[in-house]
Give the backbone structure.
Amino acid sequence: MSATQDESAQQRHTPDSGAEATSLEHLDMHVARERFEASTDFTLAIEEEFALVDPESLELVNRFQDLHAACMGDELLAEAAVGELISSEIEIRSGKSESFGEATERQSERRERLFAQARAQGIALAATGTHPWADYLDQEIIDTAHYRRLREELRWVAQRNNTWSLHVHMGVRGADRAVAVCDYLRGVLPQLLALSANSPFLDGRATGLHTVRTEIFTRTFPRCGVHEPFGDWDTYADFIDVLTRTDSIVEATQLWWSVRPHHAFGTVELRICDAQARGSESFALAGMIAACIAQAALDHDDGRLATPLRQREIEENLWRAIRHGMDGRMIDYERRTEIPTREAVDRLVAWTAPARESLGIEVSIPDANGAQRAYRALASGASIREIFKDSVAETERTYAPEGVSTT
C-alpha cells in the first residue's frame, strides 16, 4: 500500500474507495514510466500498521470500522487512517513529505490523534509483527470489493495474514534508475529485516524465530519477497504486462515484493520490516530505510552501484535474518565468509553516511531490538502474555507521549 497524499484522498471516505477506478491506470506501464520520469528525488512517506486489541484481555478485536469511522471525524486522520485486509488492523500514513524531518513531524501528529481516537473507543493499539496468540480464523476480512476479491483469490493465504509492518516510500526520479535501485536494495533486505525483527511469538508459543511475520506474509503471498533483478524498466514493464494480460493481477498493489517501484507515485517502496513496539525505533528504522534508498540512487548516479546479488545469495541471508535476527551471522559474499549481523548492519550505517548527511537523517541502532528483548524477558521467567502486555504499554507510551484528547 502507499502513503502519498493522492491515495490518501482517494481513500478518505471508505477503506478502498478509488481503488477500482485507478487499478487499470496503475497497470498502464507507459503512464507509470511517466510518473517516475516526473518524480521528485527523495520526497518520502511513512506507513505504520497497528493491531487493534482489547485493553484488558489483549485479544485482537474486529473493530476497524468503529475506529475508522471515528477517524473520519478528524481532519488529519480522515486522509491518513486506512484499512489493511483484516478488521483488527489499522494503518496511518504520513502523506508525501519533502524531508525526513517533515515526514516524522507529520506522522507524530497522526500517531497522537490515532491513539486518542483508539482510547476513546476503548481500543488499545499494538505494534509487533504478529499477535502472540490470536487465532487467525477469528479475524474478519474487511468487507469491501477490494478485500473480497483478495479473499477470493488468495483464500487461506489472505486469512492467515495477521501481520503488522512498517513501510517507507521515497521518490526516485527516472524509471530505469528506480528499477536499478530496487534491484540493488534486494541485497540489503536481510540486514533491514534483522534490524526490525519483532515477531518471535505465534499461537501462544515462542517460535524460535526472530521474525515469524516474514514466514507468514513474505513466504506465502504470491509475487512477494525478493524478486529477481530486472535490469531496466522495459524488462520490468514487459513482465508486468504479461501478468496483466494473463489476468494474474488486476491492480499494481498485487505486486507484493519486499522492495518495489510504486506505479501510482513514482516511489521506491521498501516493505520488509516488522512493526516496531517503540515509536522512536520505528522512526529510526524508517530513517535507515530512507537512507538506503537514497544512497543507492546516489551511487547509481556516480556509477558506483554494485552488481545486484543473486537470488540464492539473498535468500540465504534472509533466512538467517528470519531465524536469528540481530543475534545471528550473515554471509559476506565478496569475502566468502560469515560476519556478525550487527556488523552487517553497521556497514549499512557507514555506507549511507553521505545520503544521511545530505538528507538530515540521524539513525541509532538499539542495543536490543524487539525480538531480542522479548526472548531475554522470556528467559528471565516472564510469560508471553506479560511480555506482550508490556509491549502494548510501551507502544502507547512511546507513540503517543503527549496524550492528545479527542475533545
